[in-house]
Write a structure and sequence with these properties.
By secondary structure, the protein is mainly alpha-helical. Helices cover 69% and strands 4% of the residues. The protein contains 8 helices and 2 strands. A hairpin with a 2-residue loop joins β1 and β2. α3 packs antiparallel against α4, α3 crosses α5 and α6 runs antiparallel to α7. The two termini are 26 Å apart. The relative contact order is 0.16. The model has no long low-confidence stretch (mean pLDDT 86).
C-alpha cells in the first residue's frame, strides 16, 4: 500500500514531509518526557522495526489483487511513541533497497502509516481506564488497535489516490479500480487485528514487561 514516486503532485509530497517532520518531533518529545531512560527501549524498537521491514514484503493473495502486512497497529501497541520513528526508518530502507514506495513519497507514506500507529497506541492504553485488566479485555483492545490502524491507513491511502488522479487519466475507471483494491484490504484489516491480539496475549503470558508502559 506504499505510494510510489510520480503518483502524487509535488505539493502533496512536500506536505507529507512536513507532517512526518511534525510526527517525529512530537514522538521524540514525548519519548524524552515519558521515559526515564529512552535508550532502554531502543533494542526492542530495533527488533520490531526489522519485523515491520520484513513483514511488508510478504504478499497475501486476495483476488483480484494481493495485499501485504502493514503492522503499523502492532507497532503502535508494542512501541507507543517509538512507533513513528520506527516506521520512518523501516520505510526509508524499503524505498532504498527494494523501491517499495519512493523517496519523494516517503513523507506521505510515513505519515499515512505513522499517525494511525500513534492512535492505535492511545486506543490500546484505553484498556487501563476500565479497572483491573483481564485477558479478554486485553485481547479485544489489541484487536481493535491493530485493525483500526490498518483501516485508517487504508482510508488515507485511497483518499489520496482518488483526490489526486491526474487530469489525463480516466477518472471513472481509476475510481473503480481503486474501489476494488480498497475492498481487497478488508480481509487484511481483520488479519492484522487477529495477529495483534494473539501476539499481545502471548506476550502477556511469557514476557508481560514488553506490553507494559506503552
Amino acid at each position: 500500500m506504499h505510494i510510489a514516486d510520480g503518483f502524487l503532485p509535488a505539493p502533496v509530497s512536500l506536505l507529507g514531509y512536513a507532517l512526518t517532520g511534525g510526527g517525529l518531533w512530537f514522538s521524540l518529545r514525548k519519548i524524552s518526557k515519558t521515559y526515564e531512560d529512552p535508550q532502554e527501549h531502543i533494542p526492542k524498537t530495533s527488533l520490531l522495526t526489522a519485523a515491520f521491514f520484513v513483514g511488508s514484503l510478504i504478499n497475501i493473495p486476495v483476488p483480484p489483487s494481493s495485499v501485504h502486512l502493514l503492522l503499523n497497529g502492532m507497532l503502535g501497541v508494542l512501541l507507543g511513541y517509538y512507533a513513528f520513528p520506527a516506521i520512518v526508518v523501516g520505510l526509508f530502507f524499503q524505498a532504498v533497497m527494494f523501491q517499495h514506495g519512493g523517496m519523494s513519497t516517503l513523507g506521505v507514506n510515513a505519515a499515512m502509516l505513522g499517525f494511525p500507529a500513534l492512535l492505535s497506541g492511545y486506543l490500546f492504553k484505553l484498556r487501563l481506564s476500565f479497572g483491573e485488566e483481564t485477558p479478554r479485555r486485553l485481547g479485544v483492545f489489541a484487536f481493535a488497535a491493530g485493525a483500526s490502524a490498518v483501516a485508517l491507513s487504508t482510508l488515507i491511502f485511497f483518499g489520496l489516490i482518488v483526490t489526486t488522479i491526474p487530469a489525463d487519466f480516466d477518472a471513472d475507471l481509476e475510481r473503480s479500480a481503486t474501489f476494488v483494491l480498497m475492498m481487497s484490504q478488508i480481509p487484511l484489516i481483520f488479519i492484522e487485528g487477529v495477529f495483534t491480539s494473539i501476539l499481545v496475549s502471548f506476550l502477556r503470558q511469557v514476557k508481560p514487561s514488553l506490553i507494559e508502559g506503552f
